[in-house]
Amino acid sequence: MAEKVKRPASKRRAGGRVLGLAREPGEPDWERLLPDRDEQIAASAHWLRIVGEMRERETFSESNTHSVQRLILAYLVYDRCSRSVAVDGLVTEPNKDNPKAIARLSIYYQAMREAEKTTERLEQQLGLTPGRRAKVGKVVKKRERSAGADAFLGQQG
Fold first, then answer.
1. Of 22, 67, 23, 19, which is closest to residue 39 (Cα–Cα)?
2. What span, in angstroms and rounded, lies between the C-alpha atoms of 21 and 8?
3. What angle do helix axes 65-88 and 107-126 make, rounded to 10 degrees?
4. Which of 82, 41, 47 is nearest to 67 (CA)?
5. What is the rounded distance in angstroms from the CA atom of residue 57 to the CA atom of residue 52?
6. How many beta carbons lie within 10 A of that of residue 76, not counting itself?
7. CA 7, 75, 117 angle in degrees (round to 5)?
8. Residues 85-130: tens digit of each pLDDT
């Protein structure tokens, strides 16, 4: 009787793809960048959504890959921080042992705001926001020109 082969955790399917084996061309290795499995899956889903939209509008280029990676990491930082703010609150309570301590705005809230600013800037640069879509130019694709005589004479120069 054949044994059932169990795929290692790093090779499980996410969104119809096998993580760790098949990635979209140019897609970062999320397993190396992110320790959390759920974040790896979320990052890959963000990548597919963003790059798919950019390709559809013909604004994606290989030179954009690192900008898209930074955008996705900013999304993930925002999500991490928003979970902490939701659990712990917007204000960090003062240390009860220190009489001079004061309540402060949560460091997670501050990081969340920075991630939001980064996200907005990168989305604008990549032309992902509705107001900036018209300002982002299409990626020029190289086209090979050929004439009917090329088939007879062969490609010239």
1. 19
2. 11
3. 150
4. 47
5. 9
6. 21
7. 165
8. 999 999 988 888 988 888 899 999 999 999 999 999 999 999 888 7
Task: Give CA–CA dist 64/54, Å, rounded.
Answer: 10
Residue 2 amino acid letter: A
pLDDT digits (tens, 9 = 90+) for 7-59: 444 444 444 454 454 567 789 999 999 999 999 999 999 999 999 999 998 88
Tokens of 62: 């290989």
Asked if residues 92 and 107 have their Cβ atoms less than 8 Å apart, the reply is yes
CA distances from 120 to 43, 115, 117, 124 (A): 17, 9, 5, 6
